[in-house]
Amino acid sequence: MTTDWHIQSRAPHCHATGRAFEEGEAVHSALFWRGGQYQREDYCAEAWAQRNDNIQPLSHWQRKFKPLPPPPAEPLRKDDAESLLRCLMGENDPTQRNARYILALMLERKRLIRPVDVRQEPGGPRVLVYEHLESGDMWLIEDPQLRLEELGPVQDEVAALLRPRQPAAEAAPESVDSLAAAKPDDAVATEAFPS
């Protein structure tokens, strides 16, 4: 089963009313499964309160709206974990799911993304739903259910992916051992995330 794990950005306007969000306004984000793929919709508080309660989202979270920052003066560097994760998610190569997962954990620890939900459909993979704190992009990361003894080879894989992009003077990527120390082996990111 191939699933599209593309990044979905937060909308600048309400899905139901079309009204542009204002800075600081409470925004409800919902994740739906439609047409064989995940779809994100953002609603103002009024539209969320008036929605059809019979149509339940897979996930729901609320946040304060923050406009997107202006585009950077120069292109994004390709030598950091975030850029690499974006690249791997765009390629959607199933052999890179372990690397995508570890990179997401690194970004979560650096407080660049935050977990908003965990989804698992019957017979399907466990999916971690993250929101990028600055851009509001929603990222869907498949949890490969790594065991402690599998972390070393994945660490090497991630280091190899980052190495060509790093100048020799830069430090190696954050150690996966520190991630393992923070989370038990079979329970990596198994806690429920608040909505």
Describe, in plain words, how this protein is organized in 3D.
The protein is of the alpha+beta class. The chain has a domain at about 80-185. The chain is about 25% helix and about 20% strand. It contains five helices and six strands. The chain has helices at about 45-50, 80-90, 95-110, 150-160, 175-180; strands at about 25-35, 35-45, 60-65, 115-120, 125-130, 140. The strands form two sheets. The chain has a three-stranded antiparallel beta sheet with strand order 2-1-3. The chain has a three-stranded antiparallel beta sheet with strand order 4-5-6, covered by helices on one side. Helix 2 (about 80-90) runs antiparallel to helix 3 and helix 3 (about 95-110) crosses helix 4. Mean pLDDT is about 80; it is low at about 75-80, about 165-170 and about 180-195.
